[in-house]
Here is the input.
Amino acid sequence: MSEFFNIDNINGGYHKYQVLKNVSFQIKEGEFLGIIGPNGSGKSTLLRTLSQYLKPSSGIVLYRGNDLYTMAQKEIARDFAFVPQDTVFNFSFTVWEIVLMGRIPYLRRMQSETRQDFEKAKEAMRITDTLKLNDRQVNELSAGERQMVIIAKALAQEPKALFLDEPTSHLDIGHQVQILNLLKELNQKQKITVIIVLHDLNLASEYCDRILLLNNGSVHKIGEPQRVLTYQTIEEVYKTLVIVNKNPITGNPHILLVRKEKT
Amino acid sequence: MGLFAGAGLAVAGVIFQGILRNPLAEPYVLGVSSGASLGAVLALFFNLSMEFLPITAFLGAGLTMFLVYNLAKINGKVSTQGLLLSGVILGAIFSSLLLFFVSISPNEAMHGITWWLLGSLQVFDLKLLISVVILITSGICIAIYFGRDLNAISLGEEEAYHLGINVETVKKILFVVASLITGSIVCVCGIIGFVGLIIPHAVRLIVGSDHKLVLPASAISAGAFLILADTISRTIMPPVEIPIGVITALIGGPIFIILLRKKQKAPFN
Here is the structure.
């Protein structure tokens, strides 16, 4: 597999706060990479930096061999799509209008959408099962439906890489699994690289090819779930006592919490 | 003039609402109109010629916008409460400054200004009128040109960035356009409040939220609305003419309160 992302010794964050410290790793094309770590460890910062939105104060990120931060924003918007934790809608756009916005990177100003754009938007809605919501207003949808619409918008961008920042934290397990199954399917069938920040270690274990564990802005460990999700590592980083079992069906690590008075 | 003033006020309102992601934003509520009127009064106070009026009004509007936006921004986030509070307070400060300059002015004509400030569509200078009409019309065209960008920005700045939109540049251009429109209207018509709030709100109920439609539809309806309000102001108690700003505020104020209440009750904001 070719090298998709090459992150070389980046430091960065927001104006005053240096969140990321000497972060280096690679991402392969077609990979399903999970980013985990305690609160404030820099997961979202790393995701925003990789998606070009934040520029690191030092270090290099190569995307397909090019310096990511000198690439045109519009070009990047045709390759990357971003799904935040939740989107607040202050205006009553319809679902169709939102999904169609995913075609903006392909349009010039004042140019109206072509048939092809409509087709791509419809296709994205078919994949995410949101066609039935077509005429509904986004601010009237449930959190799960809303997140599916945002994913549909992202897919309408025809991304090569999909960035997701805890996309399932507000959702019940039914919707969580529905979204992650969908992402896995897109990853396997359409070879979309998925880079996802997850809080839930078991979800990360089940779905990710590799997991990057951040601690205090540095890469603590990166590798297959079995290598990263060991009880020693989790206790060290999260300062929490856990038992790591195996999921009886998939064989992936399964993390169990232990109540204090039982320890 | 009513047509252009209404259209401009509505478009400036839609721009502020889209960029600030807040359907309650409006030139009057944000204090931008007061800032513009202070700018205009300062030009009169220092006896600058008429051509400078739109420029100083624009500077006043732009400066107010800049201040309100940065006062309301806490940790990079602009809240509804922050915007409304800083807008109202800056608006009050600028109105007081304006009255201060009017009262210390030796120029007798300045005292008539308070009346003008309540909003009037009577035109007193043809050259000024022409330049203002050109400014408003081109401002509206620029806003429509950026309609799709405004759609994306109204979802969130980060979202817009990921759709390939140069958020900072678009924001600056549109803030300048909105300030220019507000400034031009204020120096001809005084402060006409709430038009930029009620009309876009009503228009969205009919055409939806797509700014490519909301902008032109609001411009046309607000133009018509202001002509109507002007007619009312002239005919309701003849021969007395009620300032048009009074009419729009009496209609718009209660609607604003209803909207604010509704927004506070909404689960997500």
Remarks:
- The interface with chain A takes residues 21-23, 145-146, 148-149, 151-152, 154-156, 158-159, 161-166, 204, 208-210, 268-269 of chain B (CB under 8 Å).
- The longest helix of chain B spans residues 80-104.
